[in-house]
Structures
1.
Amino acid sequence: MKIAVLGGGFTGLTASYYLAKNGHNVVVFEKEKILGGLASGFTSDNWDWVLERAYHHLFHSDGDILNFASETGFNNIFFQEPETASLYKDQDNYRIIPVDTPQDFLKFPFLSLPEKLRSAVILAFLKFSPYLTFYEKQTAEEFLKKTMGNNAWNILWKELFRKKFGKYAENIVAAFIWARINKRTKKLGYVKGGFQSFIDYIAEVNTKQGVEIQKGVSVNEITKTAATFKVNEEHFDSIISTLPTPVLVKITGNLFPQVYLKKLGKLQYLHAVNLILETDNPFIEKTYWLSVCVKSLPFMVVVQHSNFIDKEYYGGKHITYIAKYIDMDDKLLKMDKGEILDYWVPHLKKTLNSRFKILNAHLFKGPFAQPIFDKEFVKNKPDFETPVKNFFIANLDMTYPYDRGTNYAVKLGKEVSKLIQ
């Protein structure tokens, strides 16, 4: 069969690998000039490694991508145990509080001992329980208040949910927090050379198997003939779309039934803003991942990448991500790099460190980066099969209840390839 794969990220490249391995003729369409989608990277002066536009790491439990790397002969993934922490405000002082271990949790200063013990029991339950359907029948707020108590919700969770999901925070189903805790490992993985090196390696393997990869090529419309699909004047027996759902809806208006398009149109998303700073000194001395639990701060997370991956690979410069998810109407979406620097940097100086010099800055905005995992999402999220025969979807909405990530992108690519005989 001749198959069109829309999107050259991990999902599309994985699907192409298995389809070509099974003897199919595969063409990948990627609108950007670089492959990788949300995991794609960029470089700067005197860097030896490519850096992701949005922070990336693997968990030690990410079996799908680790097995795929092994199967394709890629051996450049390694693991370390960087420190993760949360930022709190204690009266007029800002405090970085580690949250890596049970011992850290027992030292947590803002909950009583009974509250900490109660919360620890629920965290253990979430970590080791299988997925249960009742997680979808209540919100995370309802579940956490009921199990951990109101004070634990207010101190541990409320601001984290609001930073991540904004005005939708109280609507997020409990399945999200189950997946978040269940999946987490202290060991975090990274790719030598950056994730782009793995992406380029898979692309090369695909090319050797006969896959045609068209970079810098957009797909604006798909039409259906009696027996085939027409994509950019080429005919295909089958299509796999890895595109974001809102993008797919736009290009399939004349292909899918209106009732199906209306269902997909009910899904809501936030967009990502990632500001990446190269500095002479780090913002944080030890911590890699710092969740921001202070309402007055206008960003969600500070990721000191060079506390995870040595700054020697980035010309000796310290690398920091500052990030936030935003609505379509958020002012950040219209702000340029200079305006966001002026907005965010004073907060960084006030709360973390004022002894730094910005050597370079990079701004990336990612559309449809975070689905809203509410009850409407659960009812309307896409499945592999669509109402149109031989047209399949394998996009990152389908990683639910897990957060989007490269491990699940690989898993989706492999699974959708099995549906094409």
Note: The first helix runs from residue 10 to 21.
2.
Amino acid sequence: MNILVTAVEVGSVRAILPVCLELIRGGDNLIIEKKGHFLIESVEELALSLVDLPENDIDLKKFISDNKINIVLFSVNVHDSRPLQIARVADILNIKTIHILDYWNGYRARMELDGLTMFVPSAYLVPDNFALQKAIEEGIPSQIIKVAGQPALADVDVSYIEASKGIDPFLDRRKNKNVILFVLEPVANDQGSSYEENANYRGYTEKDVLIMLIKALRISEEQFSVILVPHPRQNIDEIKDFWQASGGKPFGEVYTERKGQLLLPFVSGVIGMASTLLFEAWLVGKSVLSIQPGASNNPLEMLLNQDGFSLIDKHVNSEEIIVKWLSNYSDISEQKMNAEIETYNGSTQKIISVIKNLQ
């Protein structure tokens, strides 16, 4: 089978990448658009599949026809509508299209990211039943939605155990302090800093949340070392400068030597906004605090009322709530993985089954 794959942004690429690898190993011919985060991941096994695609619709049609594409596998995120453009062209040619959703938000918005009417793919794959219901509520036709898990979250238990066998990177800096991981996101860049700037403004930015955290750390009597992990699309120097200028330096530092997933076994808790890594941390049993003051909707809504997950969605008393959370951290040695983790194991195979059944 000839499969054309297109995804640009980091979350989309990480969700679709395991599927690409499995398809190639199974003997399928993949053509992956050489764009975006696929270039950053630099997976050797995919090197021969990465191809520059034509930019305009007319040449895209010819490319898809000449290469006898059977299926387009795509994932749209928050900024780049290129995967949606390619899916629309394929649909005109009566070629099956499969969309992989990497996260619990923007179910319909992703299919309208190019400003056109909602695109309806042949199959719309979501991580779980919560996402299924939300997608239906937003107008995605129920008959095309399939629960297939999220490949980037598949086998997170195995990955966690493997990572825990490594050397603790924070051992020499603990000094009786507990390490807290803070997961950064480019919120202002993605959704703006006000409703005037962007209609999709979250109600806060990453800088707002960092300032809240620093204020709470000043108040807290607990001893913590905070490790800030930047998002791949963020400017590291700018983050370091802001952290220091805002008074965060005494409490921790920006850390870029390992991916956040590899640090989970060595931290007592995880703080962030709405990153997928917060959900992954919760799955492996870490105490998680999501700070989203003023948010109109919560992408981590599926974790509300779950043990081990706390949410701040208002500005009022936010620092005091953070302080209270810090005083109730879970010790590293007492982590228990959540049963929900089984929902995502086997995600890659579920998606491949959908692909094969659409032939």
Note: The first strand starts at residue 2 and ends at 7.
3.
Amino acid sequence: MSIDQRLSELGITLPEPASPVAAYVPVVIAGGFAHVSGQVCVDESGQFITGKLGADADVALGQKAARACGLMILAQLKKALGSLDRVERVVKLGVFVNCTPDFTDQPKVGNGASELMEQVFGEAGRHARAAVGAPSLPLGVAVEVDAVVKIRD
């Protein structure tokens, strides 16, 4: 089954890949790996998912935001690779959570993106990960996620 078929089976429609908001490119392919720049969270209507976890946002919103980042990672990969079937393995995700200093559930928030990768790619979607707190993120978003992905030629 192709990844596009898998996405359809899961009821997932990928968003339009976002344009960079500063001086970088969304994906760099080097040495058999795709390095995906940090992707911020945008909801189904195209609005940024904003908030600070531990203050005005809860873990459920954070997980939704992390999943949205994961969807944007997939959209960027599809644009860069032509097909998500070229993904051999999701190697690592970096999850950045806009949160208060006393917030400690960053790993739970990161699961929103991590679980998506496993749903889409199966065992090849299981990855290493860092989930860290940040005092602020670009555009006031709640979560940002970057990725390293092993690709097939």
Note: The chain has one domain: 3-9+34-151.
